[in-house]
Design a protein that fits this description.
Elements lengths: L1 E6 L9 H15 L3 E6 L9 E4 L2 E5 L7
Parallel strand pairs: 1-2, 2-4
Antiparallel strand pairs: 3-4
């Protein structure tokens, strides 16, 4: 199964809350044989635009800040 999720940060820098739950859930789903793709909508300085962590494909994109 292919799984796509959009988040604000990944992997989480702070060990707390829903970001950690998302991280562990996606790692679990990847280990179960799913193809997991994460798009991070806030690109932090110093982090690569693409990487793969524990079977999870991560794309970081800078988006427009529209309110």
């Amino acid at each position: 199964m292919k799984i796509f999720i959009i988040v604000n940060e990944f992997p989480p820098d702070i060990v707390a809350g829903t970001a950690m739950l998302t991280f562990y859930l996606l790692k679990y789903l990847s280990r179960r044989g799913n193809e997991v793709l994460v798009t991070v909508i806030v690109k932090e300085k110093g982090k690569p635009s693409f990487e793969k962590i524990e079977g999870v494909y991560i794309y970081r994109n800078q988006t427009l800040n529209i309110k």
